[in-house]
């Protein structure tokens, strides 16, 4: 049987999850800090309090953290607080092995660049072996591809679906393909499906 203390903390934490994540999504730093203090319940360990707060009841987002939310919503002030004041790991992962950086892929000028500048690993694969560059190439997010490559991301990581060049070709994202080729992506690592796409670039 859980102790009264642990039961009470669970009752407090669960109703606060949505409020904490909403504050992170809105980049409302004063409210976010106040909610973190409520979660801490006077222990003086706010980092632990926020690290313990994860999505558990949604299969697609299981293990999602406040930093994942902040990164995905380009909430730069909340990201700074989590990373610089609470010293949250920039590469913490959810149940699928996805880092906050992966969810920042649409916001390359904000949270993605911030996370990369503060040590986020662009070479960290998820549980399926896919890298952020694969996702950016699959969606044709050219600015994100350029940012990752400028920050030193390897241009030819291989997943079950091939390289980012292969993935971009499969989606017909010719702008993404051109960027990857300009950064010396290895055409020889691609497959027949990619070769069918290549002539249409020119």
From TrEMBL:
Q: Which UniProt keywords apply?
A: ANK repeat
Where the ANK repeats fall, as residue ranges, is 128-160, 160-192
Report the InterPro entries cross-referenced here.
Ankyrin_rpt, Ankyrin_rpt-contain_sf, Cul2-RING_E3_ligase_SR
A Pfam family this chain is assigned to: Ank_2
**Xref: Gene3D superfamilies:** Ankyrin repeat-containing domain
- In which domain of life is the source organism classified? Eukaryota
Entry's transmembrane regions: none
Respond yes or no to whether keyword Cytoplasm is given for this record.
no
This chain's protein is named Uncharacterized protein
């Amino acid at each position: 049987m859980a102790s009264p203390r642990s039961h009470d903390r669970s009752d407090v934490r669960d109703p606060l999850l949505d409020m904490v994540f909403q504050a992170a999504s809105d980049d409302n730093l004063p409210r976010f800090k106040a909610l973190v203090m409520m979660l801490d319940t006077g222990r003086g360990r706010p980092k632990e309090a926020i690290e313990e707060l994860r999505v558990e009841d949604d299969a697609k987002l299981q293990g999602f953290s406040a930093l994942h939310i902040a990164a995905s919503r380009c909430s730069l002030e909340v990201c700074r607080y989590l990373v610089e004041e609470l010293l949250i790991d920039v590469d913490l992962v959810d149940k699928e092995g996805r880092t906050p950086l992966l969810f920042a892929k649409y916001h390359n000028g904000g949270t993605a660049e911030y996370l990369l500048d503060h040590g986020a690993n662009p070479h960290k694969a998820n549980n399926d072996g896919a890298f952020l560059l694969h996702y950016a190439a699959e969606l044709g997010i050219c600015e994100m591809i350029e940012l990752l490559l400028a920050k030193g991301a390897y241009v030819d990581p291989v997943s079950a679906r091939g390289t980012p060049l292969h993935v971009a070709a499969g989606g017909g994202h010719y702008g993404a393909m051109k960027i990857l080729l300009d950064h010396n992506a290895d055409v020889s690592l691609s497959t027949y499906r990619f070769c069918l796409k290549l002539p249409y670039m020119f």
